[in-house]
Design a protein that fits this description.
- The chain is α/β, with parallel strands linked by helices and 317 residues long.
- 46% of the residues lie in helices and 14% in strands.
- The longest helix has 24 residues.
- About 3% of the residues have low confidence.
- Helix 2 packs across helix 10 and helix 5 packs across helix 11.
- Strand 9 and strand 10 form a beta hairpin.
Length: 317
Amino acid sequence: MTTLLIPAGVAAGLYLIRKQREYSWGWVKTNHSLEGKIFIVTGANTGLGYEVTRYLIKCGATVILACRNHDRAAAAMKKIREETKKGEMVPIELDLASFESIRKFVGIIKEKYPKFDCLINNAGLAVQTDQTTVEGIELHTGTNHIGPFLLTNLLLDDIKKNNARVVVVSSKMHERATVDFENFGKYTEKPRGERSNHLYNNSKLMNFYFAKELYKRGIDVHVCCPGLCNTDFFRDYDPKFYHYILFSPVILFMLRSAEQGAQNIIHCALDNLNSEDKNPDKSYIVIDLKQAKSKIDLSDEVSEKLWSESCKLCGLN
């Protein structure tokens, strides 16, 4: 009997620890009515973007699903419709790795949905090999930073007119990153001793700097880290079964569901308030539904230079 009680006790203890972690990560509890509100969500058909879209639709919003693949967007919409009849979903093709696709998307928004309330820059990727965008920009920089940078800037007049919110999804991994201006937009080998994806990390730091500069320019911008989430984000890594065994402690104590990771994005889109002391310009990022100070003090010099270099890279004046 004792031999059965010990593993049962351990299992119960681990379960309680896990539940406490989930509670500490936080859930959006406000009941929102979003009828008449328009949200643009990039990468809306899968992972965090899907969960954000699902929440907004249940609240009655109109959501522009900005996705690379129309069929996958349609599949996501069908799945959401099985849960609720509220809201309206509009799929529009958007490939953040293509300037032509971004400009075409912006043209449709300006023509049909110019009075949107929030732009959620959610879409992002992580890959293991040297890949580039259509314009030849290293894929992490091009898709995670330059694509949203161009998209947001092309919509900037409408954002200002509407006093719309902008949400930028960054990551705590920005604290392990640098902005490498000498190799901006180019592939570089991983530094010695670095175990994580440095190009992904760097792009997330660029996201944070982008939010900082938007805030300085008077935009109602909110930057967040969703946490480590159970999505198809790392599909390019093709994890094997033994990886799950090796990383089981991480999975138990750190891995969030896509729905829970999406809470930070939803909070930024609807509830988060920047203050004079806590905002992206002061190096604050939303983590676990709270404003948290980054370990990095974001530099005005780097912020302004990154904006200038990004404009050059995507052909903005």
